[in-house]
Specification:
With about 375 residues, the protein is an alpha/beta fold. The chain has 12 helices and 11 strands.
């Protein structure tokens, strides 16, 4: 556990559901409150002053993504970014995993409905994810893009983005949903053409926060289908004519975002940058190792990859002959918050998670034997 990092949070020790929602820091809560208080006392300087925090959040997100602010745009959520990317592809085939979270399916289904790009569904091996070999086997001349999750939401499988880039070559787009990885997993984001992330999970920024980072290739090849009035040149000129899309990533802007949520995102990203992704990732990996041992020692079956190089902060498992809902009740009784699925359970700690969490999980699983 990063003790000084953990001091910024009030999250209960047994909270192990960061892959679903990451409780914000006191810094993010305070930033939100300040923005609301300022808006409540609005004068002629308030709106412009509050809007400046969007630039701060965008700049920090860009640095963490290994790019610059001109290639980065704030978004209200990851789904908006995926729809921008999907509808921007004018035609061809896009490879996407059948096992991905539904938010990464519907953009591609809608492109097919509109007669634009057509999805071709990949089926990873059980417990695995999208690998270079799986992609190579599906590549045909009409494939124009590959869409993947940086980290699989079910198992924590970590995609090898650099190897995927090599497999698809320089001319196809690599579109990455980074919501289960950004800020907690060191990955070569510059291998991707589109990196989309929401801030409500591992970034711990709260809902209605997110961003996208676009490569030059993406800016050149993706049509700005959803560009709104804030995504064009001469934004402040209201002359009744259609303005050209902005030349940079701002073309993905539809309208002004909330400066309140932007303040929360800026505070959350600042914490990540200060404590570093590497340190946060190492702390999470240590907790995953502990939890894995706890589950195995008590007869659980681990569904996540066991190779540290191929997994991120998610541990999915089952307890043989025990319904996940029954296991969940035991975990809840010990103050542990997991993700409960119909066929499995998922534990996802953060860098602020103390060793006590593993002890609570051990006690809960041990009680199943009594």
């Amino acid at each position: 556990m990063l003790t000084s990092y953990a001091a910024h949070f009030d999250t209960p020790a047994g909270y192990l559901d960061f892959a679903r929602f990451g409780p914000p820091s006191r810094d993010a809560v305070a930033a939100t409150a300040r923005a609301m208080e300022e808006s409540a006392r609005a004068d002629h300087t308030t709106v412009d002053g509050l809007m400046r925090v969007e630039g701060t959040a965008r700049d920090t997100a860009a640095r963490l993504a290994g790019t610059d602010s001109g290639h980065t745009v704030l978004l209200p959520n990851a789904s908006t970014g995926m729809f921008h990317a999907a509808l921007g592809i004018p035609g061809g085939v896009v490879l996407a995993p059948r096992t991905d979270f539904p938010a990464n399916h519907y953009p591609w289904r809608r492109t097919a409905d509109l007669g634009r790009a057509t999805p071709r569904w990949l089926t990873p091996a059980p417990g695995g994810g999208v690998t270079p070999d799986l992609v190579r086997a599906a590549l045909t001349d009409d494939v124009v893009a590959v869409s993947v999750s940086a980290v699989d939401f079910r198992t924590g499988f970590r995609a090898d983005l650099a190897a995927l880039r090599e497999a698809i070559g320089p001319d196809r787009l690599l579109i990455v949903d980074a919501i289960q990885a950004f800020g907690v997993a060191g990955m070569p984001w510059d291998a991707a053409d589109v990196v989309v992330a929401g801030g409500q999970k591992w970034l711990r920024a709260g809902w209605a926060t997110g961003f996208a980072a676009l490569s030059d290739r993406a800016l050149e090849s993706l049509e700005p289908v959803l560009t709104g009035w804030t995504g064009v040149e001469d934004v402040g000129l209201f002359d009744g004519t259609e303005h050209p899309p902005a030349p940079d990533a701002q073309r993905w802007s539809i309208t002004n975002l909330s400066p309140v949520t932007a303040a929360a995102l800026a505070a959350a990203l600042d914490l990540v940058e200060r404590y570093t992704v590497a340190a946060i990732e190492a702390a999470i990996a240590a907790r995953i190792d502990e939890l894995t041992e706890v589950v195995k020692e008590r007869g659980g079956h681990v569904l996540s990859p066991t190779d540290p190089a191929r997994r991120a902060g998610i541990l999915s498992f089952t307890m043989p002959d025990r319904d996940p809902s029954v296991v969940a009740k035991s975990l809840h009784a010990e103050g542990v918050t997991p993700t409960v699925r119909s066929d499995s359970l998922r534990l996802s700690p953060h860098a602020s998670t103390p060793p006590e969490a593993s002890e609570r999980v051990a006690a809960a699983l041990s009680s199943l034997r009594d």
